[in-house]
Amino acid sequence: MSNTAQTSAIDRIHLLLDDNSFVEIGAQITNRSTDFNMQGKSVPGDGVITGYGVIDGNVVYVYSQDASALGGSIGEMHARKIAQIYDLALKMGAPVIGLVDCAGLRLQEAADALAGFGTLYLKQTMASGVIPQITAVFGSCGGGSAVSASLSDFTFMAEKGSKLFVNSPNVLEGNYTEKCDTSAAGFKAESGVADFVEEDETAVLNQIRTLVTILPCNNEDDDSFDECNDDLNRLTYLADSKDSAKALADISDDNFFMEVKKDFAKEMVTGFIRLNGATVGAVANRTALIDEEGKTTEKFDGTLTTKGCQKAAQFVNFCDAFNIPVLSLTDAAGYKACTCEEKTIAKAAAGLTYAFANATVPKVNVVTGKAMGSAYITMNSKHIGADMVFAFENAKIGMMDAKEAVKIMYADEIKNAKDKASFVNEKAREYDSLQSSVQAAAGRGYVDAVIAPADARKNLLYAFDMLFTKRENRPSKKHGTV
């Protein structure tokens, strides 16, 4: 299952980093176990190449597993080398990138290998929210390695050759690879485990380079700013698109948009844009998937789902940890109503509400369509801490659909009305005007400005520029519990 035949461990490093920038650390380290005749087997570098280098001027630490050395299996010294890279990265405040091609734990060193794995998990936990952690899977990433990949912030997979699994597909009862390859990149992307799936190894490495250049190097220092050559006052003609991925690209500098978890919970869009050269994390509701030719390929009902909330909450938490401002585009008609969702949606919606409310970075919300009920509150409303809220002219903000509200409020009157339909329509228009219009919300201070979709870019850009020096004090606590 290894991809070593295509690209070696060291070649992957050289393709990832700037030319001639890689410096290897621990090249002479090898295994020290003598059990099961291991004393006669020299394992160069103990199956992993570790060191540091540069990506577009940014220092990064990298490890690349060598499947030609005992299958790249993780033994005691293998894990120790990776842990050392983490120690250095934490001291220097630089990202860690893992290039995984691993047969799993080294059986000849069972107890020591497990101890090494535990140490690695601890290092990743300590690094979480301090430095970005990126894992790319090129061959096998099974068992404990799959847990390690998921402890990182972003997981990349190649469409061909990448396998990520806790349990191999063929050991799952009633399953086998030909029936459903649960380790394949496509399956992991649809289930939300893989954040990015690219065509081949080269595309994966190029995407990692792009990601590194737009992320802060750690949670305190941010060198991710870039020069903006795009018109700051450019009009945006897709800002109100039902496909919010296209809206975000239209708003962003030079139409840059790097979508995260593209194939998971498609009704919720997450990713990174640029505004005046600064990286901004974006979360948006999506009601339609539109292809490059402008054709609608998939429709969504505009409700919040469990998977969508989980996807968005995880992304907002990452942005907050690394001081990346957050933009949300809200078009939420409520929560998904079905038996399956009812089991999980309350907890998931609470998690997203908490993520937005807990984040102290600059937060801006744009109501692009419907913003109804408590789903509206959850989507980064002013009530839970959004610093600035804009709304498009035709947006709706309120409790529920006007006609449904009227049917509840005027149940008796409707029964006695001569023309029930006319009565409901008249009262619905009145309810819309008084309680569900964007003007009513703005009049109460819940919306800071009503804007045209064409003016979205410049208004957002100015808002984030104004919020650049935001400081916010919160109650002292160890951490929340949601």
Q: Keyphrases for this structure?
A:
482 residues; 7-stranded mixed beta sheet; 2-enoyl-CoA Hydratase, Chain A, domain 1; 15 helices; alpha/beta; disordered N terminus; single chain; 21 strands; elongated; 2 domains; 8-stranded mixed beta sheet
Assembly of the depicted chains: single chain
Any guess at the CATH architecture of the largest domain?
Answer: Alpha-Beta Complex
Which bin fits the share of residues in helices?
25-40%
Task: Characterize the largest beta sheet: strand count, sense, and whether it forms a barrel.
Answer: 8 strands, mixed
State the name of the first-level CATH class of the largest domain: Alpha Beta
Radius of gyration of CA atoms, rounded to a whole number: 25 Å
Distance between the termini: 39 Å
Q: What does the overall shape look like?
A: elongated
Q: What's the total helix number?
A: 15
Low-confidence stretches: 1-5
CATH fold-level label of the largest domain: 2-enoyl-CoA Hydratase, Chain A, domain 1
- Find the structural class using helix and strand composition: alpha/beta
CATH superfamily of the largest domain: 2-enoyl-CoA Hydratase, Chain A, domain 1
Overall pLDDT: 91
Task: Please state roughly what percent of the residues sit in beta strands, choosing from under 5%, 5-15%, 15-25%, 25-35%, 35-45% or over 45%.
Answer: 15-25%
The total beta strand count reads: 21
Number of domains: 2
